[in-house]
Design a protein that fits this description.
The chain is α+β, with helices and mostly antiparallel strands and about 260 residues long. It is built from four helices and 15 strands. The protein is about 25% helix and about 25% strand. Strand 7 and strand 8 form a beta hairpin. Helix 3 packs antiparallel against helix 4. The longest helix has 23 residues.
């Protein structure tokens, strides 16, 4: 069942979104060679709590971190660890979220570690473009397939694989709510998008095959072919006036 939010509830979600966005940005400034993903995780948890939030990921389904930290061919759900040390040329997907007054904000970004290859930079550029296209499609009267198609068309035109098994989702007082939000689909198909729906739109795009592999820890997901993957995400409310991005520190109605 899709739980639509009232204008007052969407307003209440903005603080969780603000904290999530601030923490993601601040973690990004600390992404550099020689830093461990555990250091980034501890920093993120401290900042979330200082800002008045609760880490949304910590303990969720037993997950031990406050961020997911996924390097290079790792797609999502990387567990932060002291022995995962970032190296020049890596890319790092950071996914984090905060809870405030029971509302969840969820967002992700993929960062360059020092100087990266042209191939990896192109992947980051295209995946971010996919995210903005998906957000722009989150408008009343469109359908869920319009979001997925917007992402898929850009990714596949660049020759990339679109992850199938892991998708975006509704969000509110629970991290994962209905509906699932695939990053692929056909335009004008699927659930009708209506004001009050709040979605986490999060393209996961691979340089090579879309196929994935679950690692033995039960969390980490990697590309089947070992090629790099990128992940970008924002939480957005669908309003009469169009997409309203909630995971932002500034103007919530940023044009997309």
């Amino acid at each position: 069942m899709i739980i639509k939010k009232s204008p007052a509830e969407i307003e209440a979600m903005k603080e969780a979104g603000r904290i999530s966005a601030k923490v993601l940005r601040e973690v990004g400034t600390r992404v550099q060679p020689g830093v461990s993903t555990l250091e980034l995780d501890r920093f993120a948890e401290t900042l979330i709590r200082l800002e008045g939030g609760i880490p949304a990921f910590k303990g969720y389904g037993g997950f031990p971190g406050s961020i997911c930290a996924s390097v290079n061919e790792q797609i999502v759900h990387g567990i932060p660890a002291a022995d995962v040390i970032l190296r020049e040329g890596d890319i790092l997907s950071v996914d984090t979220g905060a809870i405030v007054d029971g509302w969840v904000g969820d967002n992700a970004w993929t960062y360059a570690v020092g100087k990266i290859s042209e191939e990896k930079q192109r992947l980051l550029d295209v995946t971010e473009k996919c995210m903005w296209a998906g957000l722009d499609a989150a408008r009343p009267g469109n359908r869920l397939g319009d979001i997925g198609a917007a992402v898929q068309e850009i990714a596949e035109a660049a020759g990339y694989g679109v992850v199938r098994e892991y998708v975006g989702h509704g969000i509110g007082r629970n991290m994962h709510e209905d509906p699932n939000v695939p990053n692929y689909g056909r335009r004008h198909t699927g659930v009708l998008l209506e004001p009050g729906m709040v979605l986490a739109i999060e393209p996961m795009i691979n340089v090579g095959t879309h196929k994935t592999k679950q690692m033995p820890d039960g969390w980490l997901v990697v590309t089947r072919d070992g090629m790099p993957s990128a992940h970008f995400e924002k939480t957005v409310a669908i309003t009469e006036d169009g997409p309203l991005i909630l995971t932002t520190e500034k103007d919530h109605r940023r044009p997309v």
